[in-house]
Amino acid sequence: MKAAIYTEYGAPSVLRQAEIPRPSPKDNEILVKVSASTVSAGVIWVRQGRFPGSNIFTFFLRLMYGLNKPRKPVLGFEFSGVVEAVGGKVQRFRVGDEVFGTTTGLTQGAYAEYVCVPEQWKQGVVAKKPPEITLEEAAALPVGFMTALNLLNRATITPSSNVLIYGASGSVGTFAVQIAKYRGAKITAVCSGRNAALVQSLGAETVVDYTGEGFTTRDMARLAAQFDVAFDAVGKLSSQKLKGLVKQGGKALSVTSPTSEQQEYLGELARMIAEGSIRPVIDKTYSLENIVEAHEYVDLGHKRGNVVITVAKPHQS
Ligand SMILES: NC(=O)c1ccc[n+]([C@@H]2O[C@H](COP(=O)([O-])OP(=O)(O)OC[C@H]3O[C@@H](n4cnc5c(N)ncnc54)[C@H](OP(=O)(O)O)[C@@H]3O)[C@@H](O)[C@H]2O)c1
């Protein structure tokens, strides 16, 4: 089968097209013909083999993914696709089901024509695709949505809450704005001016531009101790600054905290999608053949929402 692989850490050019053996599902697994994957922030760190600004996180990343070179040659932490075959013990899925999920902790990612995923396992998730969204949209949902939900669930958000989302235009940020809006909060979003209209369309009432004079000086003083919840969705604020934004008794949250993926989150996601309360923001779409270009774009650090990789043509039902 065709795949994009990498055998050394580094710049986007370490990714190349290759033919690799097609996997066969074990008893507890489904074989998915992959429609789409993404270039998430996490994929970028793993391709580079380093976590920006942290030797400790880089050490743990290398322990997980290979000390000197990548142990798993196929990246792609999110997928959508169509079930091609099911293992003997699989109960939730049938051949032909449209599914989406993550490859967290598995030996192979989704930058390939096929991927095998267990029906249920500790680190990752898989579910049937909600009918209201396309396969391309479904691939852009799981990691950003679950990260935002996991962290926002650590705070109490009600219609009287004042919530600040810092870095509101990224993948985690765009989902965080929509989840906080769904819970009725009054949202202040921090992003660059070019993304102001986008985050307002997702539910932010007030937008603060972090570029130009800078969020860290004038705005920091003006917004100090104003929020019930302050969420740094890009991990760019120091914990001191983040804490400075919350009222006494408020909650400071950051993507730098570890989170977990939980199957039940996809149930909440399906409900929100059915109600029209959440949508993935897709910045650009590239084909698997153009994976290097896609990584070069995301490496710049300014993607809006998500960047999707199409692997196979959407399933015709
Ligand atoms: N804890 C976890 O389990 C977990 C899970 C997933 C991701 N993460 C982490 O979460 C972070 C965000 O991931 P992501 O995929 O959402 O990122 P992303 O989409 O790549 O973030 C890009 C966005 O961040 C904005 N941005 C860049 N620098 C900024 C700054 N200094 N201030 C405000 N906004 C800024 C950019 O807007 P402009 O173009 O306007 O600058 C762009 O829209 C990453 O560090 C990732 O590793 C953690």
Outline the structure in words.
- With 317 residues, the protein is α/β, with parallel strands linked by helices.
- It has two domains: 2-141 and 281-310, Medium-chain alcohol dehydrogenases, catalytic domain (Quinone Oxidoreductase, Chain A, domain 1); 144-254, NAD(P)-binding Rossmann-like Domain (Rossmann fold).
- Helix content is 28%, strand content 26%.
- It is built from ten helices and 14 strands.
- The chain has helices spanning 41-48, 55-65, 135-139, 142-152, 171-182, 196-202, 215-223, 239-244, 263-274, 291-299, and strands spanning 2-5, 16-19, 29-38, 78-86, 98-102, 114-118, 126-128, 162-166, 186-191, 206-209, 227-232, 246-254, 282-287, 306-310.
- The strands form three sheets. Strands 3, 4, 5, 6, 7, 13 and 14 form a seven-stranded mixed beta sheet that branches. A five-stranded parallel beta sheet has the order 10-9-8-11-12, sandwiched between helices.
- β11, α8 and β12 (246-254) form a beta-alpha-beta unit.
- α4 (142-152) crosses α5.
- NADP nicotinamide-adenine-dinucleotide phosphate is lined by residues 40-42, 143-144, 147, 167, 169-173, 190-192, 195, 210, 233-236, 255, 257-259, 301-304.
